Amino acid sequence: MKSPTTDSKPIYLPSDAIQKRAYIASLDEYLEIYNASIKDPVKFWEKIATDFFWKTKPAGPFLNYNFDLNKGNIFIKWMEGATTNICYNLVDKTIQDGYGDKIAYYWEGNEPGEQKQITYQALLKAICKCANVLKGLGIKKGDRVAIYMPNTIEAIVAMLSCARIGAVHVVVFAGFSANALAERIIAAQAKLLITADGTFRGTKFIALKSIATQALMQCKGAGHPVSHCIMLKHLHTTQQIPEIPWDDAIDCAWERLMASASEVCAPEWVDGEDPLFILYTSGSTGKPKGVLHTTGGYLLYTATVFKYVFDYHPEDIFFCSGDLGWITGHTFNVYGALACKSTSVVFDGIPTYPDGGRFWDLIDRYKVTTFYTAPTAIRTLMQLPVSYVTKYSRASLRILGSVGEPIDPSSWRWFYEVVGSSRCPIIDTFWQTETGAPIICPLPGSTPLKPGSATLPFWGIVATIVDEDGIEIIGRGKGHLVIKNPWPGMARTIDGDHQRFQATYFEPYHGYYYTGDGAQRDADGYFWITGRTDDMLNCSGHLISTAEIESVLMQHPSVAEAAAVSALHAIKGESIHCFIVLKQEQLYNEIMESEIKSIIRNQIGAFAVPDLIQPVPALPKVGSGKIMRRLLRKIVRQEGHLGDTSTLVDPNSIDQLRGLILNKAKML
Ligand code: WT7
User: Fold this and answer.
1) What is the CATH number of the domain that holds 580?
2) Burial letters for 147-160: b for 16+ Cβ neighbours within 10 Å, e otherwise?
3) For a pocket test of ligand 1, which of 449, 513, 543, 545 has the largest count of ligand atoms closer than 8 A to its C-beta?
4) Does 529 contact ligand 1 (Cβ within 6 A)?
5) Residue 272 lies in a domain
6) Which of 355, 409, 483, 564 is most buried, by CB atoms within 10 Å?
7) Residue 405 CA, ligand 1 centroid: distance in Å
């Protein structure tokens, strides 16, 4: 239902059908709970904690923190001294509550018809077996286990088996290269790796085990040998694939180990503040950051968000198209979902294979009520004939969600009108690997929607905007998005580098958690995320730092200097454009271009390969030698006004750069 607007933008009010079933059915109710959650966060979260099992209560205060570097080191502790086990809460407790025969997951592979399903009861058995396998291989509480697997039930089993024994999982997205995998295994000091033989993404084969073997050789070379590599057989025998490397000294078959493992494994009781997992995300120095989440707070926050943000009821079927290798998969395919006793669909394919109707086919077949995806997927699918969507009924859908980057109003409307037949609210969820779960987002039954706005803060989150000097902007305005207070699901540190944690998130604006995003707040208090304001780019929902790409570009022997910036892209949101200065007497040609692209593919992964590599005589720099990326970004985006260029060493070089880019743009 569309109604007039308050801020010159159309508002979509929750429909009667959605409100009738919603836990929170009016804006006033949301506000009342919001205000209570802010006024007394401890009371608010303490009550939610009673929904879960705690072996012992917190020894000291429920919340203890310092958010202001002026007052000393940053720390955030929720329920320190309380003991629990998150796997026990998600699985054992759900079975005890009578849901043992409920389907926890429907799994669908890359090929249509490749299907599996698992009940809570069967999930528990698999987790216990896997936990016993890990214990048998010497994994103990606090040890790190790397997981490099396709989007499968087994990957979820692997994650939860770590949680069961107090080990810390480090999932590495299966699109990362051997180098990137090795870097993360070494950084996390992982003792063991779990992988699979390989997987298909559409028609593309990914040789996971070969990549894993290469990575493990690098780890060994760097003085960090991994004790075991467990390989799941994921591929069917009929598929033609290259030979799989195998070394009896470290490689073990998942199936063989699982077959002989016991189905019983008592949970390890861990502290509320013990680490649950590390997940690497890009950092502006080029070295990935190991974002560390802990147990108790993450459980409370992900469970609460899943329940209210998706208005999840036990009969709903949830489908998140995100990969387990990203925080979306951790929070919504695993932890938040199981904490709400959900049934979810896990999909190991791509939206356009075998054709552009795959998502809608899945939605009809599994009777999905809640579908959560990314703007980049929406933009890909909206380019295709609408018949791919309309061929399917999508009648089961109630709620649609979006995550990963700002969703532009026209994609929002297509998602709303075409996919949801104007029945389903679009829940645009703003969050980050570091925030654990959404922090700004609507609630289906209560928040009037404005296409393109992530709307209002979730309970317990005091979001605001500050100007360049860190002065809070009151009311309407535009600035840096910051959070004033701790919430249970936030990251506690960067693994092994607390200084970097403080410097990245708390140094820029004292007293606030800094998101790195810009935002506008309108007269209704709605937030409109305008994108990263740091040296980070967001390509198809993958956050990549310009420094990371630049350091890889510099590895090519002919490259003397490099700068990477983001251009706007109709489908990916942002695409990567690189400027390089060649060493003397080097000539740029197609061979060099493909060499550079393959270095990036090998060092980071295919998703980071630039759309454009532009050799230039010089990069625009200020007197101190700093590259003016802001200027390059404006040039590739063909923005007319470049702002102040007076600090440039050679302001005339700009016209030359513009000319080169305009010529290239005509050719692309
Ligand atoms: C960055 C975090 C959160 C899971 C996936 C990404 C951007 C994320 C939105 C949104 C506008 C968004 C931000 C953020 N982002 N969701 N709904 N609207 N921007 O996790 O890799 O840690 O990236 O993604 O720029 O800082 P991530």
Assistant:
1) 3.30.300.30
2) bbbbbbbbbbbbbb
3) 543
4) yes
5) no
6) 564
7) 5
Helices (H) then strands (E): counts for the chain: 22, 33
Q: Hey, what are 610's tokens?
A: 């630039």
| Structure confidence at residue 414 (pLDDT) | 96
pLDDT number for residue 8: 54
Place of tokens 């932890």: 335
Q: How far away, in angstroms, is 343 Cα from ligand 1 center? A: 25
Phi, psi of 402 (to 5 degrees): -135, 145
CB of 289 within 6 A of ligand 1: the answer is no
Ranges under pLDDT 50 in the chain: 1-4
401 in contact with ligand 1, CB cutoff 6 A? no
Does ligand 1 have an atom closer than 6 angstroms to the CB of 519? no
Q: What is the pLDDT of residues 420-475, one digit of tens each?
A: 999 999 999 999 999 999 999 999 999 999 999 999 999 999 999 999 899 999 99
Dig out the tokens for 510 from the structure: 């004292």
* pTM over the 0.85 mark: yes
Answer yes or no: are the C-beta atoms of 568 and 579 closer than 8 Å: no
Helix (H) / strand (E) containing 548? helix 546-553
Atom of ligand 1 at shortest distance to CA of 529?
Answer: 11
Domain range for 555 is 540-667
CA 487 → CA 45, 326, 355, 463, 527, distances in Å? 9, 20, 41, 11, 19
Residue 181's nearest CA partner among 134, 231, 215, 226 is 215
Among protein residues, the one with the nearest Cα to ligand 1's atom 13 is 405
Domain membership of residue 156 (yes or no) is: no
pLDDT attached to residue 4:
43
Is 347 within the bounds of a domain? Answer: no
Token code pair at residue 497: 């580098």
How many structural domains are present in the chain? 1
Residue 277 Cα to ligand 1 middle (Å)? 19
